[in-house]
Amino acid sequence: MRILIVYHSDYGSTEKMAQAIAAGASASQPNCHISTKQAAETGLDDLQQADVIFFGTPVHMGSMAWQMKKLVDETSKLWMENVLEGKVGGVFATGGGLGSAGGGIEQTLISLHSNFLEHGMIVVGFPKSLPSYADAGLQWGVAARTSNHEGMPQGINESALVAARSYGAHVAAMAAHILGFDL
Ligand SMILES: Cc1cc2nc3c(=O)[nH]c(=O)nc-3n(C[C@H](O)[C@H](O)[C@H](O)COP(=O)(O)O)c2cc1C
To answer: Which sign, positive or negative, has the C-alpha torsion 115, 117, 122, 123?
Structure first.
């Protein structure tokens, strides 16, 4: 099973989450091939070759970073040929999150779901029973807050990394089951 974790990150928080998702997936499914790639370095052939695709982004002005949206828009070529149909997807995001409702992180995750579902992919959510869901979970995927109450960046904390590892492990296990790699 080939797992591809695609993300954009300017300051490293989303990249750390991508690496934690990779670590969780690897612990859960030691025999799978896992790679992480910046969105700007990801080609359509990378997506085509993967069985499982994660998309991760920082929240920028309430939605995904433009570098991620550029790749999302480019996948329209794959949509024409139904190339991503039946692949398994997972999503994650980081955001400063100033205010009580996360600064747009929830709709950012949902818009990534929307793209995966448009392709006919199977999207795996984040069950609340998994470790650190209460710290960095939403039913859609991993949602890590990276700013303090003054809106100043403070980076990724350990509990968010635990959430990312547990989600990575969960999506990989679900994908192995759904796609028949655990037979
Ligand atoms: C241009 C820009 C716009 C941002 N807009 C938002 C926003 O609307 N909501 C939010 O919660 N955080 C916002 N942030 C904060 C980032 O989402 C947050 O710092 C994120 O964790 C950065 O991830 P990175 O370290 O991977 O680049 C913004 C940051 C930048 C640079």
So the answer is: positive
Residue 183, pLDDT > 80, answer no
Q: Structural domain tally of the chain?
A: 1
**10 Å Cβ neighbour count for 155?**
13
Q: What is the CATH number of the domain that holds 135?
A: 3.40.50.360
Task: Provide the pLDDT confidence category of residue 150 given band limits of 50, 70 and 90.
Answer: confident
Whether ligand 1 lies within 6 angstroms of the CB of 97 is answered as yes
Output the residue whose Cα is nearest ligand 1's atom 9.
103
Domain extent for 154: 2-179
The neighbour count for residue 154, using CB atoms within 10 Å, is 13
pLDDT score of 102: 83
Average pLDDT over residues 134-143: 97
Mean pLDDT value across the chain: 96
Q: Whose CA is nearest to atom 17 of ligand 1?
A: 95
Pocket of ligand 1 contains residue 28 by CB under 6 Å: no
